[in-house]
Amino acid sequence: MSLVLKNVKKSFHQGDAEIAVLKGLNIEIQPGQVVSIVGQSGSGKSTLLSLLAGLERPDAGDILVDNVHLAPMTEQELTLFRAQNIAVVFQQYHLIAHLTALENVMLALEILKMENPRQRAQEALEELNLGHRLNHFPSQLSGGECQRVAIARALVVKPKILLADEPSGNLDTHTGDKVMDVFFDIVKKHQITTILVTHSESLAQRCQRILRLEEGLLKDV
Fold first, then answer.
1. Among 139, 55, 53, which residue's Cα sits nearest to residue 93?
2. Domains identified in the chain, total number
3. CATH number, domain at 178?
4. What is the pLDDT of residues 151-163, one digit of tens each?
């Protein structure tokens, strides 16, 4: 799926002051492209990701996903569209503590009422080399394993767009590199349009395209 931003603006109020975070973003991301977004802390990277996910709405401008305008959608329409097309991987894994790895991944399928949730969840975890950890709870998994479960949960619904917010940010360098090796292999194999927010220049360099968010504007590096 393609992703297009047209003059997207977003501000926040702090007391009586209005702080413009995004000042008119214009960008087009091609289907299947793997793109990193870099920038200093506080530059608006996470805000941009929330807008792309439909979790927040821009103050002005438009976001198009595969030529579908998000702005006119009701909250219910947007929730359904997001569930069917967009997945998010967070820095904090957000796994449900009392569910096993398999059950955490199955839940994403069950919410969408997709067929064969157990089989599909198992296949997703096996693709991320977690076939031997299906019945372990998050507390029994390492940080790298938890992040791979979170990635499996995002990918199992076969999203058209994958958004990742510092997916290796909570991992040590060695573990993070191993997790991201698998991450890049899978998104390229399935040709998923991927937007990766990262502080890591080395991680950004592994993407096909690097965009820098600076002073409220987005530019190719």
1. 139
2. 1
3. 3.40.50.300
4. 999 999 889 999 9
